[in-house]
Each structure stands twice: as structure tokens, then as C-alpha cells.
Amino acid sequence: MARSSALSAATRVEPDPDDQERAAAVSRVVADADRLTILLPDGREIELPAALVSVLRATADELSAGHAVTVLASEVLLSPAEVGELLGLSRPFIVRLLDEGQLPAEYLPDSRHRVVRLAAVLEFQARRERRRTGRRRIAEIAENEDLPY
Questions:
Q1: CA distance 59 to 64
Q2: How high is the pLDDT of residue 108?
Q3: What is the dihedral sign for C-alpha 114, 117, 118, 121?
Q4: What is the pTM for the complete model shown?
Q5: Per-residue pLDDT tens for 106-125?
Q6: Using H for helix, E for strand and C for coil, what is the string for the chain?
Q7: Which residues contact 66 (CB under 8 A, 6 or more apart)?
Q8: Angle CA(13)–CA(26)–CA(20) in degrees, nearest 5?
Q9: Backbone dihedral region for residue 59 (phi beyond 0: left; psi -120 to 50: alpha; all else: beta)
Q10: Exposed end of the chain (fewer CB within 10 Å): N or C?
Q11: Average of pLDDT values for 48-60?
Q12: pLDDT range class, residue 89, cuts 50, 70, 90
């Protein structure tokens, strides 16, 4: 049974210049808001849950900066090729990370094919960025102190 691509099924929003300006206005308004109430066209008001306010804030920030936004649930299962596409790494490198256990994966039922949860990919990316930041800081300190590096 063929598996459809999780990335192709995701909702992707590309901002145009008018969207950027409106998103920037929303971003400013919701910057410190914990609660928001929206007014619907029929006059009803709905209070947004805190989680949705956080999503709106993050989305508005990215759109106002001119970045496209893709909406995916963190429990979505991705193929190694999709993981590579998200991280900007090759599929063979991702497979090696899976083999080494650096990136957790599950096997599809009755298959030798593996899938990775988006949440695991995001955690891996955050760990990788923390290590990169740490290495940069060490290099800066070594350079500033004239230490051999």
C-alpha cells in the first residue's frame, strides 16, 4: 500500500506583501496577549484557547517577516526522505542517523520501511542547533583569549 506524502498534504501559506503588513499588525496586537476574543461576521464572539493564541502569535510573526508557514501536527509520521527535506540533509545521512539511534523511528506494520514523528525531528533539530551554538561560543572564546584551537 502506497503512503502519501505528509509534507504534500500539509497546509502551506505563502504571504504576499499585503499579508505581511496585516500579519505584522496582528503580531503587534497579540505579542503579549494570553487571551483573545474574535468577532465573527454574524456577531458572535469566541474566546480563543491559549494554545491557539500561541499558534496565531507564532504564525503572525513568521508571515510578517515574509516567511511561508506550514501547518503540520507534531504527531505526523514522515519518511526518511521527508525528514531529509525538512532538515536540508540527504536521505542516506538520515538513514544513518536512524541506524545509529540518533533519531528515533518506527517501522511501518509488516514492512521494513521506517517513519519518524515530526516531534522527534524537531527535537533532533533543536539539539543540533544547541550543539552548533555551543561550538560557536567555544570558538569565539578561544579566539578572543588567543587560545590555540
A1: 8
A2: 92
A3: negative
A4: 0.69
A5: 999 999 999 999 999 999 99
A6: CCCCCHHHHCEEECCCHHHHHHHHHHHHHHCCCCCEEEECCCCCEEEECHHHHHHHHHHHHHHHCCCCEEECCCCCEECHHHHHHHHCCCHHHHHHHHHHCCCCCEECCCCCCEEEEHHHHHHHHHHHHHHHHHHHHHHHHHHHCCCCC
A7: 15, 20
A8: 45
A9: alpha
A10: N
A11: 91
A12: very high
The amino acid at residue 58 is A
C-alpha grid cell for residue 102?
540518533
- Alpha carbon of 96 to those of 66, 99, 100, 103: distances in Å? 34, 5, 6, 9
Please give the grid coordinates belonging to residue 120: 522527534
The three grid cell numbers given for residue 31, joined into one nine-digit string = 505579542
Cβ contact 25:31 at 8 Å = no
> Hey, how many other C-beta atoms are within 10 angstroms of the C-beta on 70?
13
